[in-house]
Amino acid sequence: MNKKFDDLSTEELYKLIGKNVAEFRKKAKMSQLELSLEMGNKSTSLVSSAEIYKNNRKFNIAQLHKISKILNIEFCEFFKIQKD
């Protein structure tokens, strides 16, 4: 992604957040199921869909806050554009 944060559309922002959640989850060696269970969900539906912004599924602020605690990362990391 070669755009600056301020230039992202809302859809691109949700895709960025989902991509970052997936990357940090994988770095923590957690499966989608493990993260879902830690968040209090019984299935991977939310995590798997929101990570790729499928059917307009996205993480809300409370979910991102919970994920940041589970993965032990700063909340703001979800909004950073990673250099490829």
From TrEMBL:
InterPro entries: Cro/C1-type_HTH (IPR001387), Lambda_DNA-bd_dom_sf (IPR010982). CDD domains: HTH_XRE. PROSITE patterns: HTH_CROC1. Signal peptide: none annotated. One of its GO terms (molecular function) is DNA binding. Residues 21-78 form the HTH cro/C1-type domain. This is Transcriptional regulator, XRE family. It comes from Arcobacter defluvii.
